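User: Study the chain.
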Amino acid sequence: MVDRVHGERRERVRDALAAEVPVALLFNGIEHVVMMATPCDLEDLARGFALSEGIVATVAEIGAVAVTERLTGFEVALAVPAARAAALPAGARALEARSGCGLCGVRTLEDAIRQPPAVGAGPRIEERALHRALAAIGAQQAINRASGATHAAGWAHADGEIVCVREDVGRHNALDKLIGALAVRGFDPATGFLLLTSRASYEMVVKAAMAGISVMAAMSAPTALAVSLAQSAGLTLIAFARRDGHVIYTRPERLVAGGVPA
């Protein structure tokens, strides 16, 4: 129970809080990264992380995924080809990542910034499709509606129909969950577009490009590095996406004008 104050009104109400717990990802029994995350869709998180970080090339390379609850958090164990596991940094718990940090755990400046791969031609998206998705995503954010504390990453067909949404206290965790879910469900990320309720930071661009996504729209602002990396990858980056407008920072030819509500 909490005390809620609004103007002269004060009331005692029940409040909902978003969970934030340590989640360890193990590859072939070796702990590789521990992150702070919302403990739902953890198999999606693990698969998406493996794909977006280039640990595996395709979801077919990931075998069994087992989620185990511990006293202090969760462990998610993935089976990957021996050669893939051997390429990971030696030693247990190689990395540590907080819910809001995309750089925590890197050991050198060279590790800090990954150049994203070039994306394909991708679809052309009508503005009305973007705004259709913006209007719909809130209804699919159950955790955020209850707590107000999570980010969401959603993927929509080119016509704006949202087919998958994932939530997490960490924006990059939400995106990894989405990438993992799309891979398991057999959707080709290159055929639709990505919608983020967070800002467009550099790691979001890198993860999107790794997944083959060529159009990314964020409700909040982009960073300068995100814009630079999107430009180099040929990715269309849209930010300040609202139901009444948006700003296109890179590759505007993929967004077809028309249909923005007045």
About this structure: The longest strand covers residues 30-37. Confidence is low (pLDDT under 50) at residues 105-109. The chain has eight helices and 15 strands. The first helix runs from residue 42 to 52.
